[in-house]
Amino acid sequence: MFLIMLEYVAPLATIDALKDAHYSNPDGLFAQDRVHLAGRLVPRTGGLIVAEGTRAEIEAAVALDPFVVDGAAKVKIIEFEPTWRR
User: Which of 15, 28, 14, 36 is nearest to 60 (CA)?
Assistant: First the structure.
């Protein structure tokens, strides 16, 4: 499983303009049904996605995300193995 941390580097107006494309990107994590949980950081400086797949699949999908393609966000991908769930 992976934590994908997005850090916005563009104004929020740019992020908002790309948001629909971020969610509907046919090559993205959401369209591939890899996302378990996603949301904005508070304060709104980025986002966090919890996703499942291989590292190669996650990296490929993230590389095609409109936030990344347009240079609106920096991304950090962290792999982890869940050992407990509530």
Answer: 28
* Per-residue pLDDT tens digits for 24-40: 999 999 999 999 999 99
Task: Please tell me the distance from the alpha carbon of residue 57 to that of residue 53, in angstroms, as a whole number.
Answer: 6
Distance of CA 81 to the CA centre of its chain: 18
Range of the domain at 35: 2-79
Question: Which CATH number covers residue 58?
Answer: 3.30.70.1060
- Domain membership flag for residue 84: no
Give this prediction's pTM: 0.92
Whether the pLDDT of residue 85 is over 90: the answer is: no
